[in-house]
Write a structure and sequence with these properties.
Helix 3 packs across helix 4, helix 7 crosses helix 11 and helix 9 packs antiparallel against helix 11. Helices cover 46% and strands 22% of the residues. The chain is of the alpha/beta class and 268 residues long. The protein contains eleven helices and nine strands. The strands form two sheets. It has a seven-stranded mixed β-sheet, sandwiched between helices. It starts with a strand and ends with a strand. It has a single domain, classed as Rossmann fold (3-Layer(aba) Sandwich), CATH 3.40.50.150. It is globular and about 55 Å long.
Length: 268
């Protein structure tokens, strides 16, 4: 697992309390993860998440994943946990606006210490967000604690690809993205198995490179003004961020970073 020492929860909360978080939603949509709706449907299908179940979304951000599950998988109840007050408040408002407050609840807390009850959820959910968590061992242990025996832990995440990152590449990528570290397929698999979970699926989705291409095209061809407005029309900052996005694009096409998909079942 590659990591940097100067990024933690404070830096991550700053991202989603300010213009960086707004930029990500501008180019990725309300579902701030690679693949959007199609990715969510793929993950839910592989995890066999369906009608009447209850779930917990760890690092739920604005709650878009939970709203998706309630609307399109007929999930009965969702409980989201996130440490950033701005997105939790935004999520509560959006759920209220969409008439879903009765089915979706939020808790403002560290996902490694959520305070939720043991064995209280049919499934745990996460989409491209656990890369922001410093202690992934504690995160997976918390997920395994909350899910019922026989329940599933289903998530996608940005991971180190099979080609691997050099230390220099990892430092630049992680610093730009405000990730404290980045796992790989084997690393997440080992953490899940260490927490009494059986791996059902652990795979590279193959989506990363084409979607980074899409985001850069959108910024260059359509959303330039919108992005500049978010960052106070600072052209120098825009150019610097674009350069880091191009670097990330190169890493993705080289197979050095990827989107991983994981489904595991907690043993009974």
């Amino acid at each position: 697992m590659k990591g940097v020492d100067n990024i933690g929860l404070r830096e991550v909360k700053a991202v989603y309390s300010g213009p960086e978080g707004q930029l990500w939603e501008l180019i990725m949509g309300e579902q701030i993860h690679i693949g959007g709706f199609a990715s969510s449907m793929d993950l839910a299908g592989k995890a066999n998440i369906g009608s009447g179940s209850s779930g917990v979304d760890l690092c739920c951000c604005n709650g878009a994943g939970m709203r998706f599950l309630v609307r399109f998988r007929n999930v009965a109840r969702m409980h989201g946990v996130d440490a950033t007050e701005t997105v939790v408040e935004q999520g509560r408002l959006r759920c209220e606006q969409e008439g879903l407050s009765g089915k979706i609840e939020f808790t403002l807390a560290d996902v490694c210490d959520s305070g939720l009850a043991d064995a209280s959820a049919d499934f745990i959910w996460g989409e491209d967000a656990w890369c922001y968590v410093v202690d992934k061992l504690k995160l997976i242990a918390e997920a395994a604690r909350i899910v019922k025996p026989g329940g599933v832990i289903a998530f996608t995440d940005w991971i180190e690809g099979k080609a691997g990152l050099s230390d220099t590449e990892a430092e630049r990528f992680l610093t730009f993205m405000k990730f404290p570290n980045v796992q790989n397929l084997e690393g997440y698999g080992n953490l899940l198995m260490a927490n009494d979970c059986e791996i059902i699926t652990a795979a590279d989705t193959g989506r990363f490179a084409t979607h980074v291409d899409l985001y850069l095209n959108m910024l260059n061809m359509q959303l330039t003004y919108d992005a500049l407005k978010i960052i106070g029309f600072n052209s120098d900052l825009m150019q610097a961020m674009a350069a880091e996005m191009v670097f990330m694009q190169e890493l993705a096409h080289a197979g050095k970073i990827a989107q991983g998909l994981f489904v595991a079942r907690r043993k009974k």
